[in-house]
Amino acid sequence: MSERQKRVLIVDDEEDLTWTLSKKLSKDSDKFELTCVNSGREAMEVLNQLPFDLVITDVRMPEVSGLDLLVKVKDLYPSTKVIIMTAYGSSDVQKVANERGCFRYIEKPFEINELRELILDGITEKRGFNGKVSDFQLSDIIQLNCLGRLTSALQISCENEKGIIYFQEGNIVHAETDFQEGESAFYRIMSWKGGEFVVLRNQIPEKESISKGWQSLLLESLRRVDENSDLAKKEAEREKRKRQRRIQQMLQKLYKSEGIEHVFMHTKAGFPLFYQGKLTDRKEVISELGNFVSVLLGNVLKNSKFLKGQQLDFWELRFQRRVVLMQRIPDQDAYLTVIGNEHINTGFIRLEIKKNLPNLITLL
To answer: Residues 142, 207: one domain?
Structure first.
């Protein structure tokens, strides 16, 4: 079966222009089949009926603008390339068009041969591969562009942020994010932990804001990432110690209550998390206490299943000379166990545990 002829759709509300283009480009009928319409609405109707390889659209049109048509085409027919043409050339229009997936951008007035070359470039099958690359560092992609001496743009998105890096013959010449440009934008992009990227060939920026060599830029970005990483680790460690001190303060307040001997936070398996009590300097005995409460907890949980009581939240055991209270910390593998003598005020302890429970959930 022979391959179908390429189809090109031109969209412009100026009927004189579409008529002229259809006549001028008719000699290329052996290379592509040309259709001209005069509104974005007509363009969508035609696209819904036939597949097109290339759409060339004016920006300013009634009802559906060229930029809106670009979005709809890339959404419904992602393999169809779009060329934007306008008499109102501006960097803002070009930037928006590029962000929305525009293949090329041409300003009016233009030579018919200039448009013809763009059309032939757009419908010509390129040798090579399309696809996605996973688990690559952004620096690797940048080096590929630089070592290949490419003229291109690298669009990067990370969560709610977007950025773009421009290359000219392998040199990094410009970078932008939502709020920065130049070297600061490049370093901002390089600090992102992950995301998605798209390489756009033959894209030239409106300005050049970077003159430093790409090797120096990458080295500086790596240095900044390492520096920020060290600062983040130190900050995380400070925050962790701060949370631990607050937990110990809560447990110490419980321990100072009359009759309390041990205030112990532990996992279901009895692994010690925090401790306040008589055994502070005796880690091996605290470990034995962990084994004891683990066995005790395991037996209680078995009885809970037998009684069909579902999740155990709180329980209290009272012996002649000892009282044991245990509170499960919701959404954590953690329990708070309070052990005291017969003089313990269990009502006060229950109120204190209930009062501190939300803070313990947050701090763990």
So the answer is: yes
